[in-house]
């Protein structure tokens, strides 16, 4: 059994985001370009040239650190890493007050169903294009547990499916939300398990990253495997440890890796040491996210800190 000791990540204190009063007496003949420049400068100052991030070990955290290097206009900006919960709290507080905020975001995620948000355009392609979530397995799983291997290889669902589990999980435990989804989508589950023979209590361990997307897929997979007679353990770990555990054979499989950008470096480091079963979800995305009421559309619209 693979074991991982969590290190508690300190939650960063909430950002102080005070709205700057609009200037008076602007003349009608002021150019739209100047207005946009003033607006971008004000937004950058109001968020204190800070991007509100999540856990330091997340792939999006690494991409955001890269963005600070790649975009000259982000000179002097801070990437404040904390936790997913702290980021969502700060985002919700800012939206309640209609204040500006820039966060690291990803989809599928219930935040896009709960709030009116938008991605900032990424002209330099730091965050990559559309992402896919893949399934990886340890070498030898196909021989040792052919039935489990077949199910894991067959699992494929849509972002809307995952988001429905995440939304329900705001009101109940993730395992309950996953069970609800399985009950409501038994036809899809039957396709995943078609031709698979039941087993008698074989143990299998899935590793996952500690975010709602992966909690959703891991709990759904757990229930489906348990329906076939498996004894399933879910172990949440840091993204780098997902690949280390599978490559070393200390865990059996994972539905957590985001490719090609988010976890690409971990994939390359251990390539050839695990088996890639392909996509379990397509159409994922990461990037910088802002509330739609903010008058800004691109990372390049942000202003450098003085």
UniProtKB/TrEMBL annotation:
This is Glycine betaine/proline transport system substrate-binding protein. Pfam families: OpuAC. Residues 42-183, 203-303 form the ABC-type glycine betaine transport system substrate-binding domain. Residues 1-21 form the signal peptide. InterPro entries: ABC_Gly_betaine_transp_sub-bd. Its main location: membrane. One of its GO terms (biological process) is choline transport. GO terms for cellular component: ATP-binding cassette (ABC) transporter complex. Transmembrane segments: none annotated. It comes from Sediminibacillus halophilus. GO terms for molecular function: amine transmembrane transporter activity; carnitine transmembrane transporter activity. It is found in: Cell membrane. Keywords: Cell membrane, Membrane, Signal, Transport.
């Amino acid at each position: 059994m693979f074991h991982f000791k969590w290190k508690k990540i300190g939650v960063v204190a909430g950002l102080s985001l005070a709205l700057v009063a609009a200037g008076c007496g602007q003349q009608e003949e002021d150019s739209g370009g100047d207005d946009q420049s003033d607006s971008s400068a004000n937004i950058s100052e109001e968020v204190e040239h800070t991007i509100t991030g999540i856990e330091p070990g997340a792939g999006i955290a690494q991409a955001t650190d890269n963005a600070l290097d790649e975009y000259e206009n982000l000179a002097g900006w801070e990437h404040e890493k904390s936790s997913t919960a702290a980021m969502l709290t700060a985002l919700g507080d800012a939206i309640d007050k209609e204040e500006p905020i820039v966060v690291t975001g990803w989809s599928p995620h219930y935040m896009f169903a709960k709030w009116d948000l938008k991605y900032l355009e990424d002209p330099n392609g730091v965050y990559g294009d559309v992402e896919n979530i893949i399934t990886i397995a340890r070498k030898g799983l196909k021989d040792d547990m052919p039935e489990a291997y077949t199910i894991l290889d067959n699992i494929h669902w849509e972002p809307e499916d995952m988001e429905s589990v995440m939304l329900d999980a705001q009101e109940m435990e993730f395992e309950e939300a996953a069970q609800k989804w399985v009950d409501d989508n038994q036809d899809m589950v039957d396709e995943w398990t078609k031709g698979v023979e039941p087993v008698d209590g074989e143990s299998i361990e899935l590793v996952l990253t500690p975010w709602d997307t992966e909690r959703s897929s891991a709990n759904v997979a757990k229930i489906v495997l348990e329906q076939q007679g498996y004894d399933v353990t879910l172990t949440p770990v840091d993204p780098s440890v997902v690949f280390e555990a599978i490559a070393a054979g200390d865990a059996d499989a994972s539905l957590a890796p985001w490719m090609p950008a988010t976890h690409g470096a971990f994939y390359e480091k251990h390539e050839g040491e695990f088996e890639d079963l392909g996509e379990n979800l397509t159409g994922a995305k990461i990037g910088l996210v802002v509330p739609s009421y903010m008058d800004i559309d691109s990372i390049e619209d942000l202003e450098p800190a003085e």
